[in-house]
């Protein structure tokens, strides 16, 4: 949801090496879970960059990285990828490596996908910087004959 | 019975008795510690401890200090420790308070217990605070550890965890079983 980005970010992890100043990111390992409103991301490791007391970027790796969020229309968005690079100021997540994005409208697979949380827009392939894309768009009322 | 033999036996018994008595008193009787008393007590003092090279290791002020004469350790009530950054580093001093504290004989380990609060300023001028019930500080190594729950706070962030190992000068804090909240 667009309101997610005004929520606090809660993080749980097995361990953390926290740097008290902004020059180095805080490194989280041992299984990481990040929640922010309806947004939920799980991964093996994460690096959180702070600037002036605010988290500005989270780079998540491994595991794979699983992300889920509820869109403003109430429908869910789920993704799986090798890495996720979350720019918390621009509200954009770049998913890379065996990316699979599932939405109610259909699914999308590729090597690199950019997901804009403000608009809910998903860009992939050339638009996202690389790789071929496979997309499946489900018919409007796929349930009735 | 031959009186010389009797006399010899009596003298031998006396010698044994004297020897035993001397042996019992060899450590000069009960030391102050055994008598449960420190050998000196300070009130409302400030102490500057120096390391092996003569540099300030830490500054300590407290309303009361008692010294254990045999172990040569210090016991403190509501102390305030100030730990300077390593010479030449851009670190800032740490202030550490607690209900009680114990300082090792060489002054290279400080055990703080009860409502421990450590505060400092980070490289960006932001305040940082650690709260816990137990903190072990190694002033010369500029390091602090804790085996119990620790909460680290900075503007915009609360970090809770266990098994802390903090490098005070490098301003790096390692924790396990972490829960963090970043405020927007």
UniProtKB/TrEMBL annotation, chain B:
InterPro entries tied to this protein: LipoPS_assembly_LptC-rel, LPS_export_LptC, LptC
Gene3D superfamilies reported in the protein's UniProt record: Lipopolysaccharide (LPS) transport protein A like domain
Domain of life, source organism: Bacteria
Keywords: Cell inner membrane, Cell membrane, Membrane, Transmembrane, Transmembrane helix
TM regions (residue ranges): none
Signal peptide: none
Pfam families to which the protein is assigned, alphabetical: LptC
PANTHER family: LIPOPOLYSACCHARIDE EXPORT SYSTEM PROTEIN LPTC (PTHR37481)
Protein name stated in the entry: Lipopolysaccharide export system protein LptC
Organism of derivation: Cognatilysobacter xinjiangensis
